[in-house]
User: Fold these one by one.
Assistant:
Number 1:
Amino acid sequence: MADRVFHIALLLVAIGYTIIAFTTIKAPFQYDPLGPESWPRLLGFLAIACSVWIVVKPDVSSLGLGSRTVLRLALLLLILSIYAYLFEPLGFVFSTWLFCIALGRMLGAAWMSASLFGAIAGIGGYLLFTVVLDLNLPAGILKPLL
């Protein structure tokens, strides 16, 4: 029952998000065939479809999260909030690097492995998005170098 209650709440959030995506998000110009407005709309429909599916046919009868799991989820939410806060001032590369280190350590990775993964994700992601996909990402503290 708790699973259904959670996903009914998530369904209401997804419906609200989709309404906002259709009524508020307007791009001043179109630079690809689908346009920048299409992606939030598609994500909204996908979230609604997934929530409806789980409300109709849930996997479990009770949510049953342990206190350790709730603590780890709260820590992940904190890490994501810090990542969002640092995204503009530090830029994509450094904020992603720090996020990956924190997430890797939370999942049990060694410092060196987490740091190496973060560097690869930050630099590789930046190159993928800016060079290959021609998207704009904040350079942050690397702006003088670019």
Number 2:
Amino acid sequence: MHCPTCEKEFYPQPDKLGVYFTNRDKNSKDAVRFSIQQCPSCCETLIIKEKGQAYKISNAIMFSDIESESVIYPQSSEFTIPQEVPKQFSDDILEAHEALNYSAKASAALSRRLLQKTLREVLGITKRDLSQEIETFINTANAPTYLTDAIDAVRQIGNFAAHPIKNANTGEIVEVEPGEAEWLLEVLESLFDFVFVQPAKLEQRRESLNKKLRELGKSELKSS
């Protein structure tokens, strides 16, 4: 987990805990736990929210099967999107990022749908399901290894075998694995850098070089 103030990673070691049930019998699959601690790096006070299962046994409360966790105070810095990303894609990833504050399941569904949209509309990869489209991207996109490995991990982290609807109907809101929603957003940022940002920067550099070549009376570089 990362501190929103100093961006340093920390391991949750809360000073205070509070568990809240969604029903009266103190046995809930949708319980919420809030914890308070200080960031060990910058000493910022942090409030962490977790969703999971909780059970009351005698005077003790057991909390397990964490579905999602996030720092809700202080608010993280504003999520920025490179200007090279087209609006129809930047709006979608911004919506997925904002949804993460309220529902990991909703955020993951938006991100999966956006991942498939990018593969289909930008890279022209259209297959029967998302898993096959990921496989085609890995084999044909000439992308760097860090990106192909990250996109391939979407299937493992999302546990497509146990939740095939994520693969067949990407926008469906279903259960998510711990960290899945956050991982999808990181993958999308890397993918957007590959398909939008770097090509735009390369074109700018090419145009700058061509301007110098024209001034020297030499042939221009052509786009590939």
Number 3:
Amino acid sequence: MRLRKNHRILAAGFATIGATLAVVVGLGVGMGTAAIAAAPQNTSPPTIKGTPQEGQTLTGDQGQWSGSPTAYTYVWTRCNKTGGSCTSISGATATTYKPVAADVGNTLRFKVDAKNADGTTTATSTPTAVVTAAKAGSPVNTSPPTITGTAQQGQKLTGLRGGWSGNSIQYEYYWTRCDKNGGSCANINSARDNLTYTLVAADVGNTVRFKVEGTNAGGKTTVSSAPSAIVAAAGKPVAAGCPTGTGLIQIANLGSPARLLVDQTQVSPSTISFGTTSLTARFHVTACGGRPVQGALVYVTAVPYNQFSIPNEQPTGSDGWATLQMNKLGGFPATPRQQLLVTFVRARKSGESLLGGISTRRLVSFRVTR
């Protein structure tokens, strides 16, 4: 009897060990096959262009990213003289920033959050030099320089220095070659002190800016134009429906077969949770090779419906951006496991068919956390 009892105990023990091994093996298999999140990765850090001086405009470049980011968020931060102890500057969430009195004696950094369906990654520029106070009596730029002409190899561009105030101003002119986003600019040495510039092969695929330095006894002020359109190769005609010239396009001057493009998106808060009650969504509209469009009507709605309110169409501004406010409705979250908020976005020209003309449509998703 005792032998039979021992056999039963051993059999039960082996069964328990076998079940435990099965669970461990099962977990190992599950862990081995789990999908690996692929949040954006920064491959070239953000940078800052401009003079770190009170009242001068600084321009931040988002740098280079892998992982197909769907949205970027920008924040300027004020740091100590060595670039540490940084704090976000309230309201400074655009790609440009003018230092104020509080920045004098400190440095600045440009911080970028890149986001896709798998997460958000943050990268920050190196600090600027220590911000200096505005120079009394130095030239003041009242309207920025501009460029006229066709952005195509072999074509001549003309720079206009814009408006200035101040006494006895002497001007120097520079043409700069920049990347396709208008950043990472370098002076074109052969084009110094010229009001005109003929585009060459090295400019193809890049943009150019016209830079003006105004100098008087009070100091020097440097201002650049907005970037040109991306320079096309020689012999490539201006796309049909696109106005000639470079830079901003008024929607009234754009026609078929040109098409609008929603090429950038932003959302605030950058991380949407189940408790989020309102959203601020921003959409950037371009056409004709990346030129910003002013006056395009932008519409957005969450899919499926009844998650957030549908705001009225909003026109894009002189920077190509439209801002729309959305409030939470009873249908959000759509499921207890919702991970994305999918939105349908449309940009169109007033008076044209919603499905025709130069209109465009796309789906944009934003990350949702519980």
